[in-house]
């Protein structure tokens, strides 16, 4: 059985890397963000709780996240292991989690702040059809217009430099103590996330002596 924690700031490709690893090695991908979003969309009791918190402008608390993870892992459907994303968030959670679950290691996707900015600030959303778009990957024929449906390409309201600077600072502040705990107790593999998706995946597998990609 294989049990991993994956860390990385937004734009680091964390979700993509976790999914690639999970699908291939039959691990359960436990994404706290996905679970919370699913509950909000399906109007569950948890979803209602989350919406109440968000409506007051607060982030979902550490205790709530912890109970979400506990309930999810209690399902015991992870016969070959899991890769968890979005947890632990505090030093206390990290200590407890490492003692409870005999984690194989921590994948730490490293992306310099300038690169995070470059990636995040070039994200657009089509106002017409809702498609995600990235100006780094595609250049629209007409500026700020989606080639397919001709909708306006807009940045998300919180994807501007000031908000991003706050998120970056918060991320580093929250992550630093966690990484220190992990480094003391587990193997942390810091991976260069500026590389293309496939190379990042290969590098994760090399670090943990996992089977290499066959496709
Ligand atoms: Zn569109």
Strands, helices and their partners?
Layout: E1 2-7, H1 14-25, E2 28-31, H2 32-41, H3 45-55, H4 62-73, E3 81-85, H5 91-101, E4 105-110, H6 113-121, E5 123-126, E6 132-134, E7 153-154, H7 161-185, E8 188-192, H8 197-207
Parallel strand pairs: 1-3, 1-4, 2-3, 4-8
Antiparallel strand pairs: 5-6, 5-7
Helix pairs in contact: 2-3, 5-7, 6-7
The protein binds zinc ion.
The site of zinc ion has 7 residues, from loops.
Strand content range: 15-25%
What sort of overall outline do the alpha carbons produce when their principal axes are compared? globular
Class by SSE composition: alpha/beta
Q: Can you write the helix and strand succession as a string?
A: EHEHHHEHEHEEEHEH
Can you summarize the main beta sheet? 5 strands, parallel
How big is the Rg? Answer: 18 Å
Arrangement of strands in the largest sheet: 2-3-1-4-8
Named once each, the bound ligands are: zinc ion
Low-pLDDT segments, ≥5 res: none
Mean pLDDT across residues: 91
Q: Please, how many helices?
A: 8
Extended strand count: 8
Q: For the record, give the distance between the C-alpha atoms at the N and C termini, rounded to a whole number.
A: 22 Å
Helix content: 40-55%
